[in-house]
Each structure stands twice: as structure tokens, then as C-alpha cells.
Amino acid sequence: QQAARLGIGKFQHLGAWKVSTLGAHSPYNVACASGDIKDVDAYFGGVVEELHSRRSSSENIPQLWPLDKFRLELDEAWPSGAGLAREKKGKRRPFGGGLPRVMVGPTRWKKGLIHVDEMGPLSPSKGLFSANLYLQLPESSDAPKEGGLHVWPLGVRSRWDWYRNALLLSGLSSQDPEMQVRLGRALGEPKKLELDPGDLVMLCVQRPHAAVGFSSGTRVSLQCFVQHNGPDQRLLIDS
């Protein structure tokens, strides 16, 4: 139902390996990339519009958006609570609570693009995670035994280890096909996750991961990031 609300059918024309992020605002890193303060202001204005619009239906009946439900349950489960990240200065405006992502097959990478969303060694006191709520998945897979998501249990925990493997690890931010082959060989066998509509997957995005590709169909998910700044600190959500 939530996938249908997003009007997914109109994105079928996107074609091969196009990924679209939907919503009233762009991701924050995109808004900042231009260096124009107007784009940043537009982001924060869009955040409020996005949060409010997702809670209303065509019948003007308030309803709980899945990412809102996730935020509430995370706040209840984590001892120090959880909520939207905010600006550290100025108006202290809230960051986004997550955005829908749509991918239409055929995808460019058959086994997915191996990547990380943040470079750096792992630490028990801080880290960056993503929460992924799957609303719709392709009806069939080219490689059913591959699952829907691959995660490599790579545990680089010191800057020395990171620098020592910097040449290879730098490929985790690249879309170069040759580097993707090298990464696949060096990282070895990943953990393979089977996915179903309605599943929630949380993972540390400092670990290499890849969404498995598909030849036809549409994958729809909701995604946000969760900042972990220590066991006694509030979890901060942004997008």
C-alpha cells in the first residue's frame, strides 16, 4: 500500500539502472554540494513539507508513515532515545527523517555495486548506520541464491589498517568496473540477506555492502541514516 501511495508506476520509464530518490527535498549531501546557502535553506524547508505530507492521505486522514513508526520504536528501544538530528547552530532546524528510493531494472551491476557510505575504521563508540524499509521487490531474480543484499564483515578498526589497505579500500567510493572486480575478489564471500516486502534492515554503512541487481521489475525502499555517537548518547536520524 505504501509503495502504491508513492505512485511508483510513473517511474517505469526510467530504464536501465536508474535510481531515483523521491520526496520534497534532496538528500542533505546533494543540497550542500552546490555551496549555495539557498539550496541548504530549500532542503530544510522541504524537510518540514516532506514530514507533514507523508502523514496525510487522499482522504485527509492522518496516518503513520513507516519511517515515523521506525523513529518512534527506535526511540522506545534505545536507552538514550532517538530522534531527528538538528543543526548545531542557528535555527537548529531538523534534518530529514528519510526518503523513498526507487530502482527500475535492468540494473547496471548484476551483483550490485560494492560500496560504503562513510569511509573510516569501525569504532564501538561511534558509527554511521542505515535503516532500509523494503516496500516492493522485483518479482523474480536472475540469481535467486544471491539474496537481495550483500554485506561483507570487514572489520577495519584502526587507522593503520585503513592506510595500509588504502589503495583497495578507496575503490569503495568508485564505480569503476575493474575496481569492482578487484573488490569482489579481495573481500571474499559476503553475508547474503534474503528480503521480503515489509522487512527492515539496519547495517553499519562503514562496512562494504551491495544491493543485488535484477533484470526486470522495481525495487522500492525507504531509507534514512542513523548516527551513533556513543552508548549514552541519543541516536540521530537524518537523510
Description:
This protein is α+β, with helices and mostly antiparallel strands and 239 residues long. It is 25% helix and 21% strand. The chain has helices at 2-5, 28-33, 37-53, 66-77, 159-164, 166-169, 177-187, and strands at residues 19-21, 82-84, 99-104, 127-136, 149-151, 191-193, 200-204, 209-211, 218-228, 235-238. The strands form 2 sheets. Strands 1, 2, 3, 4, 7, 9 and 10 form a 7-stranded mixed sheet that branches. A hairpin with a 6-residue loop joins strand 9 and strand 10. The chain is globular, with a radius of gyration of 18 Å. The model has no long low-confidence stretch (mean pLDDT 90).
Structural class: alpha+beta
- N to C succession of SSEs: HEHHHEEEEHHHEEEEE
- Output the number of helix runs: 7
Oligomer kind: single chain
The CA-CA distance between the termini, in Å, is 23 Å
Bin the helical content: 25-40%
Mean pLDDT: 90
Instruction: Work out the number of β strands.
Output: 10
Shape: globular
The Rg value, from CA coordinates, equals 18 Å
Major sheet attributes = 7 strands, mixed
What portion of the residues fall into strands of 2 or more residues?
A: 15-25%
Question: Which residues form runs of ≥5 with pLDDT under 50?
Answer: none
